[in-house]
Amino acid sequence: MRSDPPTDRSTIVGWPRRRDMPEAPGTHAPCRWREDRACIRFRQPARPAEEATARMAESEQGASRGHEARIVGLVCSAHFISHYHLLLLPPVFEVVRTELGVSYVALGAVLTAFNVISALLQTPAGFLVDRVGARPMLIGGMTIGVVALLLAATFPSYWMLIAAYALLGLANTVYHPADYAILSSKIAAQKAGRAFSFHTFSGFFGSGVAPACVLFCAAYAGWQGAYYVAAAMAALVVAALAIWGAPLSVSAAVRRESGSQTAGKAGLDLLLSAPILRNLFFFVLLALSGGGIQTFSVVALGQMNGTPASIANIALSGYLLMSAAGVLLGGILADRTSKHERIAAAGFLATSTMIVAVGWGDLGAAALIAAMSLGGFLNGIIQPSRDMIVRSVTPPGAFGKVFGFVSTGFNIGGMIAPLLYAWLLDRGEPRMVFALVTVFILLAMITVITRPKPQPAPAATPAE
Fold first, then answer.
1. In the structure, how many helices (H) and strands (E) does the chain have?
2. What is the C-alpha to C-alpha distance for residues 464 and 353, in angstroms, rounded to an integer?
3. Per-residue pLDDT tens digits for 205-253
4. Of the candidates 35, 342, 388, which has an alpha carbon nearest to the alpha carbon of residue 192?
């Protein structure tokens, strides 16, 4: 009976050394030899172990790329719907007011209900995103939005519209916390800037196509028909998230592990820290400046220079469309540098220059459209770097609550801006609209360039 060879085979005279062992046919794997000289391949090739690891990593990266494309596509679809819903009422404002027999102020209260609910509940929604997961929150929020639109269209009355928009505001609370939590945790860091740019672009695109689509639907089926179509669009995205949204999910174990990494700075302590509060203020400034341009520039140009509304609206459309184009370029730039504050600062400075030209130069139609379009493009470049700045100060497992909290700045600014700019127009000060927009842009720039540099997280100490 043959005895097993000693463990240290190098001590046996004549035993083939590993480097001298022949390769198994058709492989790079060395053989060992039995007494009958039959070649037995090793189960795991010893020499190309690194190659096997590389092949596995390459395979995982290929799968990851496919998952990342699906993730970005689904998240952008949801963000498109959220912005589309934001502009459902304005195109049919006059029609709805006449049909319901209410005043402008009363119908404006519908939008106020939306913003108040969003402002109050967006941060709690962010906590829930981090606790129960972004995908179920996104599906739940969008489902609430579908129900809200169906109620508004099926039971057309003023108080039902108030209730429906309160529900729509509740649905709106999940988008930014869930979207940014998914993108921040699921997309590789070197691709995050482009992912954020696609996300922002989808929102701009939703805002851009909503007015025309709503008016087209309303022309054939009334404003209720436009709401039914919007509900159907949202329902399709909900179905897509339910059927193909598995890559968006984060396991409970991973959420607990991520949460444990920020146990010392979780909850309100994290949100009330200086970097997060600075970003909240930053978002308020962005809303104040954007609100002046998007909502009041047409009226201000008419009062100031007698610019026809048609020309002013074309200039505003150029601003919005070129903002969307700038977002895509901004995503590429954000992925090529870690100096996101420099991109943002340069963009703010250039944008403010264009706003000054519009506000203080009596520009002709072509020059006005060109200046507004260029200002929009420069403003769009800033957006991905804005999101990367927030991401850089957010610990793992806290993306939902942090992005939910800082996005509340949009609601705060959105409630202040209309009152502020409308007051200036009532006083006959249209040029002050552009002056304040410029001031808010420059304050945002100062907020960015004076922020402390994020400190790298301390290395984890192994448990004893």
1. 15, 2
2. 58
3. 888 788 888 889 999 999 999 999 999 999 999 999 999 887 777 655 4
4. 388
Q: Does 39 score more than 60 pLDDT? A: no
Task: Say whether pLDDT at 421 is over 70.
Answer: yes
d(C-alpha 315, C-alpha 366), whole Å: 9
Q: What is the mean pLDDT of residues 24-47?
A: 46
Token pair recorded at residue 406: 């800082």
User: What is d(CA 82, CA 169) in angstroms, rounded to the nearest whole number?
Assistant: 10
Asked if 101 and 191 sit in the same domain, the reply is: yes
Amino acid at position 336, single letter? R
| Tens digit of each residue's pLDDT (9 = 90 or more) over 274-302 | 888 999 999 999 999 988 888 788 888 88
> For residue 445, is it within any domain?
yes
Q: Are residues 304 and 367 in the same domain?
A: yes
By the 8 A CB rule, do 388 and 337 touch?
no
Contacts of 404 (CB under 8 A, 6+ apart): 122, 123, 124, 125, 126, 127, 129, 173, 176, 177
Phi first, then psi: give them for residue 462, nearest 5 degrees.
-60, 145
Tell me which residue range forms the domain holding 75. Answer: 70-247
At residue 390, what is the residue type?
V
8 in a structural domain: no
DSSP string, 313-379: HHHHHHHHHHHHHHHHHHHHHHHT-S-HHHHHHHHHHHHHHHHHHHHHS---HHHHHHHHHHHHHHH
At residue 132, does pLDDT exceed 60? yes
Q: Which residues pair with 40 in a beta bridge?
A: 32
State how far Cα 2 lies from the chain centre.
69
Q: What are phi and psi of 363, to 5 degrees?
A: -85, 145
- 3-state DSSP call for residue 284? helix
DSSP 224-266: HHHHHHHHHHHHHHHHHHHHH-GGG---HHHHHHHHHHTGGG-
> In this structure, are 308 and 354 located in the same domain?
yes
* Residue 318 near residue 293, CB atoms below 8 Å: no
DSSP 26: T
Q: Given a cut of 60, is residue 74 above it in pLDDT?
A: yes
Give the mean model confidence (pLDDT) for residues 361-385.
90
Do 169 and 313 belong to one domain?
A: no
Count: domains in the chain: 2
